[in-house]
Design a protein that fits this description.
Layout lengths: L2 H13 L16 H13 L3 H14 L6 H15 L2 H14 L6 H15 L8 H16 L4 H30 L3 H14 L5 H16 L2 H14 L4 H7 L6
Helix pairs in contact: 1-2, 2-3, 2-4, 3-4, 4-5, 5-6, 6-7, 6-8, 7-8, 8-9, 8-10, 9-10, 10-11, 10-12
Length: about 250
């Protein structure tokens, strides 16, 4: 919020009656400026529900207000802080849809990225939200390049890629432990090729090596072994594979 609006909000807060929120309809008679001031005050105090109620009232009653953009963004922040990430995502999106040229568009775009990342589950579960977060965060990096929001979105994007790599590795390991080696190899190969920069890639190559050894495909096992030693010579997986046979 810019300095001019913050000054206005401060003035409104001073003028607000202190007992207004105790009535059955605490917002009756309040102007858009007063509702925004109240919502901001409650937000700053960590009273997310009170902030949400005041800001919802403002947007319902004064949708065309000059402070509607700031109220919409603050509402999204309050819902995110409360942990209601689905609603926060929706409000950040509404902000972008209604005010695409606003100076805080990058903030809202990052809010969608962060909300989806928070919805991303553990690596052993379905990763639909993780994939959504990855795509949205990458868009933030491109659309708002050289901003702090783009830098944070890039970090989140990297975290989502790591989780996706882990998810595929866990699927491969599931098949490996059940001696379904052909299926395991397919998933291990997927990890090694699509996520080569992650810690899961050398582990996947080790999995390919061990799976082929189990099947009896010595030539393919040796090929996987060489890929591992050449691409990730200092990895724990490379140290393990060295103990299984002659050095590279």
């Amino acid at each position: 919020m810019d300095r001019k609006l913050r000054t206005l909000v401060t003035a409104v807060l001073i003028a607000l009656p202190t007992g207004g929120c105790g009535s059955s309809n605490p917002y009756q008679g309040m102007t858009d400026q007063e509702l925004y001031a109240l919502g901001l005050q409650r937000y700053d105090r960590g009273n997310w529900d009170d902030a949400i109620h005041a800001l919802d009232r403002l947007l319902l009653t004064f949708g065309g207000s000059d402070v509607a953009p700031e109220a919409r963004l603050l509402l999204a922040h309050a819902r995110f802080a409360k942990g209601d990430y689905l609603s926060a995502r929706s409000d950040y999106q509404r902000f972008l849809d209604r005010y695409p040229g606003h100076q805080d568009a990058a903030v809202a775009a990052l809010g969608i990225c962060r909300s989806l990342a928070e919805l991303s589950p553990n690596a052993n579960r379905d990763q639909a939200y993780t994939n959504d977060a990855l795509g949205i965060c990458r868009n933030v990096v491109v659309d708002y390049a050289s901003t702090p929001q783009a830098a944070e979105a890039a970090q989140i994007s990297n975290t989502m890629r790591l989780k996706l790599a882990e998810h595929e590795y866990l699927a491969a390991d599931f098949y490996f432990r059940r001696e379904l080696f052909d299926s395991a190899i397919r998933y291990f190969e997927f990890v090694a090729r699509l996520y080569p920069e992650t810690e899961w890639a050398p582990k996947a190559l080790l999995g390919i090596y061990r799976s082929n050894v189990a099947i009896g495909y010595d030539d393919l096992a040796d090929e996987a072994r060489q890929r591992l030693l050449q691409s990730y010579p200092d990895s724990p997986a490379a140290a393990e594979v060295r103990s299984d046979g002659p050095g590279a």
